[in-house]
Amino acid sequence: MRGDLPSKKKIAFPVSHELERYLAKHGNLIDISLQYEDLLRYQESIPLLDLEHNDTLWRSVFYNEHDIEEISKELKMIYAYLKTDGDVEVMQHLSIARIDFCTFGNTHPFRIRIINRLNDNYDHFYIKKVDASRVYGLELENLISPNRFDYFISRSTLIEEHIAGIPGDDFMKKNLDDNAFNQIRMAKEFIKFNERCFVRLLGDMRAYNYVVDITPDIEGSQFRIRAIDFDQQSYEGRKSFYLPQYFKDNNPLIFLGIKHMKAEAVKQYQMEERSLIAHRVKNSRSRLNELFRVMVQDKLSFPDKIEQLKRELIKHHKNEAFAKCQSMGEIVRTNFILLLQKDFKQSIVL
């Protein structure tokens, strides 16, 4: 397997007025005073280390006394929007334990650690620079994946709740040495995740861009892979970029599939996942149509990338339906149309 890295740093695209109206209609647009740029006014920072004293590429940041008082108040208000639909009564029991800044990646997010003083339980949420690609990625995740989570935008700021799970790279280091039954379930979930990403054209699913949620079951465990980075929603021109199987740090999960599964089983799991996606598309048809009416008009990439992806998908699907697409939104919509017509060609994982 080989990694298929981005051609260059991802360009952030603004949220259009049409997309703002869509978000407002569905409750994802809020008006808050605190913006991403306000959090950049920190005075000091120190490296954040993990439990094994390794650098996490996050830095804990500190503000002067005046700023932190106002920032803490606004952050607790944001958390109330995420968890209690803006009910401020919850705020009296909350305190901001830590604010971390990520030095790695495109969005340079802030991660807020918040504690409930009644029971010392903590939670996290994120504040990022807004990017239309990411907003479309979040919407598609909520509409056609088995996962849902809350997010809001306010002017130039994106707010996301935390997605719980073991980071993919840590999971593969510590959890793959398991019984054969669980290994088969891990490989099965990766096949289904690979298919979900390819259908909705979510790229860059290297191991640190997703988490694995483990649920104990009657026999063994169930595994769910959840994307946590949506910056590369339908931006790159290479088809392979939308297939997690092509990133070399996912090889350990690929090798489990090679070890335990025949090609017929792989095809069965791919067909199962496409059927589930098609069912979700039908259940969300009205909202998806609204979303695509906006998405097909938005600029989410560049002409050379659009033309390249069209060519590669025409070759992959052996279908000229992509030839007239003029935007990434049209390409994603065409992928869904082929899925509903049962004319979507599976990827070859093993």
Q: In order across it, which strands form the biggest sheet? A: 1-2-3-4-5-7-6
Q: N- to C-terminal separation?
A: 10 Å
- SSE string, helix = H, strand = E? HHEEHEEEHEEEHHEEHHHHH
Proportion of residues in β-strands: 15-25%
Counted up, domains total: 2
Oligomeric status: single chain
Class per helix and strand makeup: alpha+beta
Q: What characterizes the major β-sheet?
A: 7 strands, antiparallel
Shape: globular
Give the number of helices. Answer: 11
Uncertain ranges = none
Helix content: 40-55%
Query: What's the overall average pLDDT, rounded?
Result: 91
Q: Would you report the number of β strands? A: 10
Report the C-alpha radius of gyration, rounded: 21 Å
What's the short story on this structure?
The chain is an alpha+beta fold and 350 residues long. The chain has helices at 17-25, 36-39, 65-84, 132-144, 168-174, 180-200, 251-260, 263-283, 285-295, 303-317, 328-340; strands at residues 44-49, 55-62, 94-102, 110-116, 121-129, 151-154, 157-161, 166-167, 210-216, 221-227.
Structure description:
The protein is of the alpha+beta class and 350 residues long. The chain has two domains: 17-161, no CATH class; 166-340. The chain is built from eleven helices and ten strands. The protein has helices spanning 17-25, 36-39, 65-84, 132-144, 168-174, 180-200, 251-260, 263-283, 285-295, 303-317, 328-340, and strands at residues 44-49, 55-62, 94-102, 110-116, 121-129, 151-154, 157-161, 166-167, 210-216, 221-227. The chain has a seven-stranded antiparallel beta sheet with strand order 1-2-3-4-5-7-6. A three-stranded antiparallel beta sheet has the order 8-9-10. It is globular. The chain starts with 16 loop residues before the first helix and ends in a 10-residue tail after the last helix. The model has no long low-confidence stretch (mean pLDDT 91).
